[in-house]
Design the sequence.
């Protein structure tokens, strides 16, 4: 056994025996440090003859490499052991509850959600959104819409009045979104395609009527607007809104002062155990009113009924929300009960779109 | 409008079944609201003879009867009726029958030990009367074994239609029959109306005492006297029909007027001639005149109301209701029959003012057929002669039947243009003519004359409706509305997008969207800056829903408190909706508001293992407001936060958000204690409100490219400064001063500590800020950093009086 062998066995033993990073470093310094045993041997190479160096050089360098290698391996092993020890000490109780994220607690009211759904559907058919004030003149809410003063048709609307002004004129809370039809036709050139979602008011209160409710009105002024295309628009809307492949609709002639001809539309459905399903069944459920814009209304907007034509329709937003999402009673819509909002509301990021589907 | 099937068949010759008739009515716009078919419901009830009625062995008040229901197999029935007796004819229901008056289904029972196989019935049990004292006691000769409903004439289904206000012609059975006949399911019967040959003049004069301008109020008034009538009960068939549609038979004369009202849509009035003093005059009522009417109420009249008066005063309110004093009763022998025309608008207005709803008003305010006014008088006279006897005078007629028919120049192409359906001219002509229109001419345009009973048909569109409603809207095939080519363009306006985005943004902060009433209590409105006279409802549905809201906050505050009262104290609610400053369209704004209560913070309140309970404060509201502005893409660089806000906020714990002294966009903070008290609110409530209409509009940019990103190659560094400053100095001023000290290098400033107390002079506070410096050209030297620090300290000191904390 040469002195080199002895040194190597000694150093490797020290490496193996080092129990932590500091001890290992001490071994490294003692062997490979400036004055380390291996460093000292390497220094001797300079004063050797070429023959000697040729013989001893590989031996000493080999020793150094093996010691270095051993040091590295030992360091890795020590680090691994230290990590293991740390990991076994670092533990959290993952069953502890986290705070619920705000975006999962927040809710969008069904009315807003349904307006977004309706808007997405009609936008696809080229409708923009028009709006108007809740406080309307009698002229725009009634007269311009062909409700003559004193006509019994006005009584179909239980109107809220504001206090009369100094000239005795009384403004009203709009009883329907239809005055925005007038505003639109008076400010925009045909062709027109708008929907008009908004709040409406009638002096009425029971399980299915509240003094405030929501409507969406549609208005198309277009050469291609007739009952046939009106039917198509409404059928497309109902299919898309109720998310069914087919709906059966029934158009019944009816009367609205501002349309002629006028119709009410029923949709076929089944009712089983309080659940309403569309696209099946034998029951009829009234969901909207519609018709061709009355010639007098067109005239009141400065349009010639012989050359301009259009159709309009109105849907109760609260009503279609109830039908689609199953709320049995309208009144809680406006009571802001957090239990109701939590249950019937929608998550903030459930934004309806046609691309992704109205509902998830 | 109600009528019975047999009544309809008086006017319509048809083989169609009831369900076909009902479907057809709905299909042509006379929506069937309901059909009541008593015969179907009462089918099991048969006429039966009580053979024996023995005392029940175990009960004093019960009898054991043997009943023959017509099949020769007597059944045993235990009966508790006091009038049950052997030999009587009554109505029997076998086991399994549903009893409408008791809402039970019969079964074979044992009553006090005696078996009973069915029931003998009272009218009340059948749901056709109110006689609870005993079982039906039918006259001898009633056919045993026959269904009772058939025998009693109850086998006449009652149809109710939901009549739209434009169809006065269908306030009559005849008009409904005409509409049905037009569909081809039957033929309209034209019963000839025989003119009445009156003897002599009507002795009662009629004076239309109206100014020429008022003539429209009563274009026609016709009157006839029938002497020597006997006014007993009307015949059973008439009573049955009137009862079936919900009217109470009174006496023959009154029943006749009601009958003609429904049969022909022609309201009439009858006066007892003996009770009328002198001639009749039609005039405006005098202010304060009164009439005790047939509804038993005394009505106070005014000059807008037209009346029929005699020497005794007002006898009848025109077109609405008659007076009690001149009404017909059993003692009436001479009757005056009135048939008149009244102004629909005036009748509607008077009826509303008086609050009287009658079948006459219902028809007159919609418009009765003027051409039938005199025929109606004759029809009523004939009925009086038939049912009550007597001899008529000639009619006295004041005024004249107005000409109401109009001619419409009608191009057939209108049907295709408006309805999108191609129908043959032959079909369209038949439809119009069967509805009573007269079609003249040939070719592409025809002249269509409207019938006198259709005041609603004014123009071409109305004719299109007539044609397509009879053809059936289901025959019109849906046809796509052409779409614009290419990809759809954005359609929402800025405020529409912001309204939608605001809702999503606020919901993402854990807030629940509420939709609260647009009207709030007056006192609430006043507290929140509203309550103006122009925004008060004249007819609120409830006193606490009286004023248009000036702000969303009061509604949400009350909602939060309601939730708290129910055991949910940590409500976090928002609303995005309309508020009203004036009654003009410009006075209406869209606002976004959130209210947080108690532990309803952004992180979720309440107790949690990871930290104590959190309570909302003004900063919770501020955070919501700023998050909303950021979500809406509003640049907040120029945003100022000024201390204080509207009067409903705590003056020391609120702030106003603005872009300048005149461009306030919203406010936030804790609710003022006085408002808390006034609204009876408990706990801690904070709110913010942002007026979405007040936000700056986005600048139009020629390109969507974002500004170039300039990244520095040099390490940023941070320096901390702790300043001592007077307590009243806002931290915001301090930060602003520091920023102004070195605009080029300072990348941001955070306030990381706020301290008052030991070590700090009374009345002062310590504000610690971390200033982030971002070198742009080269790494800063120590000397340069020192120089920047010195400038910051000097500038902050100069602007705020702050000194570096020792």
Sequence:
């Amino acid at each position: 056994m040469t002195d080199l062998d002895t040194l190597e066995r000694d150093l490797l033993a020290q490496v193996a025996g080092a129990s932590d990073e500091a001890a290992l470093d001490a071994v490294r310094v003692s062997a490979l440090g400036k004055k380390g045993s291996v460093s000292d041997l390497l220094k001797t190479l300079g004063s050797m003859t070429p023959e000697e160096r040729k013989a001893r050089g590989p031996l000493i360098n080999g020793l150094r490499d093996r010691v270095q290698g051993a040091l590295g391996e030992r360091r890795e092993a020590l680090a691994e052991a230290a990590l293991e020890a740390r990991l076994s000490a670092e533990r959290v109780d993952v069953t502890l509850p986290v705070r619920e994220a705000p975006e999962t607690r927040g809710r969008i009211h069904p009315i807003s959600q349904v307006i977004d759904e309706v808007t997405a559907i009609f936008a696809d058919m080229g409708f923009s959104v028009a709006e108007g004030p809740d406080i309307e003149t009698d002229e725009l809410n009634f007269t311009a819409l062909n409700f003559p003063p004193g006509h019994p048709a006005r009584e179909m609307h239980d109107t809220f009045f504001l206090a009369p002004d100094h000239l005795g004129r009384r403004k009203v809370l709009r009883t329907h979104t239809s005055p925005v039809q007038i505003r639109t036709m008076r400010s925009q050139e045909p062709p027109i395609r708008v929907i008009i979602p908004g709040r409406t008011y009638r002096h009425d209160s029971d399980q299915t009527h509240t003094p405030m409710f929501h409507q969406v009105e549609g208005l198309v002024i277009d050469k291609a607007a007739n009952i046939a295309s009106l039917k198509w628009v409404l059928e497309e809307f109902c299919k898309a809104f109720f998310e069914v492949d087919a709906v059966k609709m029934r158009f019944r002639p009816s009367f609205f002062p501002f349309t002629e001809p006028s119709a009410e539309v029923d949709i076929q459905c089944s009712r089983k155990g309080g659940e309403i399903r569309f696209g099946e069944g034998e029951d009829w459920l009234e969901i909207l009113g519609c018709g061709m814009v009355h010639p007098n209304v067109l005239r009141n907007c400065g349009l010639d009924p012989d050359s301009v034509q259009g159709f309009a329709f109105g849907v109760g937003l609260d009503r279609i929300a109830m039908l689609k999402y199953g709320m049995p009673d309208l009144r809680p819509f406006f009571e802001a009960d957090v239990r109701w909002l939590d249950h019937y509301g929608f998550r903030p990021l459930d934004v309806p779109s046609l691309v992704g589907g109205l509902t998830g | 409008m109600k009528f019975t099937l047999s009544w309809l068949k008086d006017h319509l010759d048809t083989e169609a079944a009831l369900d076909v008739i009902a479907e057809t009515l709905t299909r042509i716009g006379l929506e069937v609201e309901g059909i009541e078919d008593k015969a179907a419901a009462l089918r099991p009830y048969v006429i039966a003879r009580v053979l024996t009625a023995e005392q029940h062995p175990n009960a004093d008040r019960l009898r054991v009867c043997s009943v023959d229901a017509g099949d020769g197999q007597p059944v045993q029935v235990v009966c508790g009726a006091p009038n049950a007796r052997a030999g009587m004819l009554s109505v029997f229901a076998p086991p399994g029958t549903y009893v409408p008056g008791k809402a039970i289904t019969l079964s074979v029972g044992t009553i006090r030990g005696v078996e009973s196989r069915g029931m003998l019935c009272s009218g009340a049990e059948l749901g056709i009367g109110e006689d609870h004292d005993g079982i039906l006691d039918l006259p001898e000769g009633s056919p045993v074994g026959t269904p009772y409903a058939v025998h009693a004439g109850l086998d006449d289904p009652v149809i109710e239609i939901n009549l739209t206000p434009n169809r006065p012609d269908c306030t009559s059975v005849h008009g409904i029959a005409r509409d049905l006949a037009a569909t081809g399911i039957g033929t309209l019967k034209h019963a000839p109306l025989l003119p009445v040959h009156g003897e002599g003049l009507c002795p009662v004069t009629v004076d239309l005492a109206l100014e020429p301008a008022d003539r429209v109020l009563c274009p026609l008034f016709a009157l006839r006297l029938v002497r020597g009538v006997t006014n007993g009960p009307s015949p059973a068939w008439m009573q049955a029909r009137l009862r079936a549609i919900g009217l109470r038979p009174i006496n023959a004369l009154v029943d006749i007027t009601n009958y003609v009202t429904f049969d022909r849509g022609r309201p009439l009035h009858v006066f007892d001639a003996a009770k009328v003093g002198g001639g009749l005059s039609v005039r405006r009522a005098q202010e304060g005149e009164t009439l005790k009417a047939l509804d038993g109420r005394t009505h106070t009249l005014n000059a807008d109301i037209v009346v029929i008066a005699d020497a005794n005063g007002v006898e009848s309110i025109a077109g609405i209701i008659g007076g009690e004093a001149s009404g017909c009763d059993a003692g009436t022998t001479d009757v005056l029959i009135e048939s008149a025309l009244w102004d629909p608008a005036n009748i509607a207005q008077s009826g509303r003012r008086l609050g009287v709803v009658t079948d006459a008003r219902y028809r007159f305010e919609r418009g009765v057929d003027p051409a039938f006014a005199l025929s109606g008088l004759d029809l009523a006279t004939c009925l009086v002669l038939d049912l009550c006897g007597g001899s008529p005078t000639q009619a006295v007629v004041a005024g004249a039947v107005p000409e109401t028919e109009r001619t419409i120049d009608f191009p057939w192409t209108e049907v295709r243009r408006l309805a999108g359906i191609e129908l043959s001219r032959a079909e369209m002509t038949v439809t119009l003519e069967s509805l009573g229109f007269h079609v003249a001419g040939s070719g592409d345009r025809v002249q269509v004359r409207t019938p006198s009973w259709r005041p609603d048909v004014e123009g071409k569109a109305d004719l299109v409706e007539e044609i397509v409603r009879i053809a059936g809207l289901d025959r019109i095939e849906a046809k796509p509305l052409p779409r614009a080519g290419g990809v759809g363009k954005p359609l929402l306006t800025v405020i529409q997008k912001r309204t939608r985005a605001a809702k999503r943004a606020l919901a993402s902060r854990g807030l629940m969207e509420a939709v609260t009433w647009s009207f709030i209590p007056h006192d609430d409105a006043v507290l929140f800056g509203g309550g103006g006279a122009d925004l008060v409802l004249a007819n609120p549905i409830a006193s606490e829903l009286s004023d248009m809201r000036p702000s969303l906050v009061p509604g949400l505050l009350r909602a939060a408190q309601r939730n708290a009262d129910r055991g949910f104290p940590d409500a976090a609610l928002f609303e995005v909706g309309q508020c009203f400053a004036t009654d003009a369209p410009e006075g209406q704004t869209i606002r976004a508001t959130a209210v947080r209560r108690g532990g309803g913070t952004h992180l979720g309140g309440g107790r949690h293992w990871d930290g104590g309970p959190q309570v909302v404060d003004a900063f919770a509201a501020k955070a919501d407001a700023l998050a909303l502005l950021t979500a809406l893409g509003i640049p907040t660089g120029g945003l100022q936060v000024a201390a204080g806000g509207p009067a409903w906020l705590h003056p020391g714990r609120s702030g106003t958000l603005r872009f300048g002294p005149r461009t306030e966009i919203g406010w936030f903070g804790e609710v003022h204690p006085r408002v808390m008290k006034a609204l009876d609110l408990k706990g801690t409530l904070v709110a913010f409100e942002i007026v979405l209409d007040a936000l700056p509009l986005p600048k139009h940019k020629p390109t969507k490219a974002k500004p170039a990103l300039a990244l520095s190659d040099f390490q940023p560094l941070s320096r901390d400064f702790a300043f001592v400053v007077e307590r009243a100095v806002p931290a915001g001023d301090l930060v602003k001063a520091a920023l102004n000290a070195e605009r080029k290098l300072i990348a941001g400033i955070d306030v990381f500590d706020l301290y008052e107390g030991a070590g700090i002079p009374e009345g002062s506070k310590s504000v610690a800020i971390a200033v982030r410096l971002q070198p742009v050209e080269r790494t800063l030297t120590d000397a340069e950093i020192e120089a920047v620090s010195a400038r910051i300290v000097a500038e902050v000191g100069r602007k705020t009086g702050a000194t570096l904390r020792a």
Summary: Chain A has a mean pLDDT of 91.
